[in-house]
Write a structure and sequence with these properties.
Bound molecules: fe (ii) ion
Number of helices: 4
Radius of gyration: 18 Å
Number of strands: 0
Order of helices and strands: HHHH
Shape: flat
Helix content: 55-70%
Distance between the termini: 27 Å
Largest sheet: none
Strand content: under 5%
Amino acid sequence: MASLTNPFSGLVERKLTKEELIQAIRVDIVGELEAIFVYDAHVQATDDPFAKKVLSDIRDEEKAHIGELMTLLRHLDPEEADHFAEGEEEVREMMEQLKIESPKKDSNTSSTTVGSLL
Ligand SMILES: [Fe+2]
């Protein structure tokens, strides 16, 4: 995490290589997942309806950020995107074998999930 008291902490001596950028995006995704976990924990830890609403909204924005980052990652590393798709297909096959249907989407919820972005 950046030190806010150090005015030079955001300065870099060079640009990232493509491989370093891909790694940085992965780290960014981890940060978004951690943020979702923390906001959701706070939503669950309070009964204040207004706080729940605001924190839930922020949490869901973090989910959208994951979608953006995953799209960027798939663009930067199409081979990795193939692995994501392969894993998704494997789970779909397991669901078919176990006759598990995908949950129906509620019309009031977001049309994408972390899983669907893979
Ligand atoms: Fe975010």
